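User: Structure please.
Assistant: Input sequence and predicted structure:
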Amino acid sequence: MDAQGRGRAEEIDPADQWVLNPDTGDYELRLNNSGADSARASGVSAPRSSGRRGAPREGGGEGSRRGREVPRQGGRRSSSGPRGEETAASAENTAGRRKRKAPKARRKKVLLWTGGVMAFLLVAVSAGGYWLYQHFNGNLSSVDIGDRGNKDVVTANAPLNILVIGTDKRTGAGNEGYGDAGSVGHADTNILFHVSKDRTNATAVSIPRDLMTNIPDCKAKQEDGSEKTIPGTQNVRFNTSLGQDGRDPGCTMDTVKELTGLKVDHFMMVDFNAVKTLSTAVGGVKICLAHAVKDEKSHLDLPAGPNTVQGEDALAFVRTRHAYANGSDLDRIKGQQQFLGSMIREMKSNDTLTSPKKLFKLADAATKALTVDSAIDSVPKLTTLAKELTKIDTKNITFVTLPVIDNPAEPTPITVVVDPVKAPQLLSMMQEDTSLTEVAAQKKAAKSKQDALLKGTKAAAADVRVDVYNGGEIAGGAQQTVSWLQNDKGVLKSTNKANAPAKAAKTTLEYAPNQADQARALAEMMGLPATAMKPGAKDAVGLQAMVLTLGADFKGAGTPITGPTKIDIPKASADKEVCAK
C-alpha cells in the first residue's frame, strides 16, 4: 500500500485517541493527553467531545460525523505500550454508532460478529469503526493472482473453498534458526478449507507437503511486477508449488485444483510469525500430549498431559514431528490439526468474545500475519468472507488428511502418493458437497434432491436414447459405457460419440423436458447424482438423443457416479480435545 493508504508516521494513531472509562466500561474520545492520562489514573471519565460539527481536535485537523467528533483516518500501527493495549480494545465498541449501547448489548454484538473459524480469519476486525478500518487495512499484504479465484469474495448459494498456506519462510525475529534460513518460502503446511453450500459444516483437508504430484503450468507475478509463465513439472513434492522457480500462491491454487478437482476461491498465507503472534494474542492455546516431549530439532520441551502453549512453544509444537510415534510429517499434521481446533475453540470462548482488548490483539495479529489474494485484501472484504464462516458450529468443522500411501517408487519411502481408493472417495464427497459430520439439514436436503430426481415415471430401457461422450480420464470410457448399457441394461439406442470437446470434472446428462422419463431411467441405472442432471428448455425433436458426458468422476462402467456418503478415514472435530501421541 502507498503512504496515503497506510497513513503517515507523523500523524497521530487513531487508536491512541480513545480511552476506557472504568466506571462505565465505555470508550471515550480523549481531547487532551494529560487530562485523559490523569482521568485514567483517577478512574474519572475523560472529557467527551462537545458534539459541535467541526469542533477542533487535538493535534490540529478537524473531523465530525453525525453530530459528534470522529477521529481522522490514519494507518500507523499502534504502540505496544499500555496505552496502545487499552485503546486497541476499542475495536469492539467505538466509532460509527449514533448511540452507545450498554455493555451487555455490546457483548451480544461481538458474539454475532465474532468466532474465528480458522486461526487466520478473525471476525473481530468487523466490530470497529472507520479508523480501525485504516489501522487493520494497513496491516494486510496481498498477491495479485490474476483471474483465478472468486472475484465476488463470497460465492452466493455455492460451496466455498479457501486454501490456507503456511510457508517455511524464516522471516521475523528468532526464526532464522529454524531449518533452512534461506528458504524462499515453500508450501510447508496446506489446508483446503471447504465450506458447504448451506454453511452448516466445513471440511479442512490437510495436504502433505511431501506428497508427490504434478504441478501445472502457471502464471506468477514476480517481485519486479512482471508476469512469468512457469512450466509445470511432473512427479515432484507438493511443497514446491510455492516459491520454487518463482511460483506464487496462485500456482499452489492451480496445483490444488488439479489434484482435487475443486476450484479454490481464495488463499490465505502465513509464515512462522503467525503461529507465535496469534497464539500469544489469544492468551495461549491448550494442547495435550500423551507423553512428555523433548525435541531438540523443534525445541519443544513439555511434560505429558494438558499444556498451554504460546509464542515459541506454540511454534515448536506445530513444527515437531520427532515427538510422535513414527516421526513423520503425517503425524505432525495431526498435531497441527489439534492446535488449530483448540485455537478455534479459544477464539469462540466467552473469555475471548467478551474481551475488547483481546479481540483487538487477535485482529491486529491476524491482519499483520496474513497475505491474501487481491479479491479479499481489505477489511470489509475479509469481514464479508468471515461472516459466512461464523455460521458454522465448531462441532461441524472436521479435520482430515488427504488419504495417502507410501511412495512405491522409493526403496525406503520418504514421500507419499495419493491413496488410489480412499482419496477419490473423499474428494468425490467434497465435490458433491457431502458433509463428513452428522448435519441433519444437509442430509435431508440431499435425500430430498435425489428423491425428486427419481420421482416420476421411468422409460423402458429399450426406449432410452443417449449419445455418450468421454470427457473423463479413462481411455475408451465412452465405448465401455455404451457396451455396458447395451449388454447389461438393454439400452440399445446408445451411441459412442468418442471424446468430448473438452475435459469435464463431473459427469453430466443433458436432456429435453419430453425426455425426463428417459433421464430418470438412465440416472437410476448409472447412479447419477442430482447435480449431474441438466434439463434443457426445449423439447427434443424426432430421434434427438440425450447427451451423457463422462467426467473425471467416472470410475468405470457399472460403478455408480454418486459419491459415497461416508468414508472410513481418521477424522478430528474442532470441538473435541485429543492428546497427541
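Residues 144 and 258 are 20 Å apart (CA to CA).
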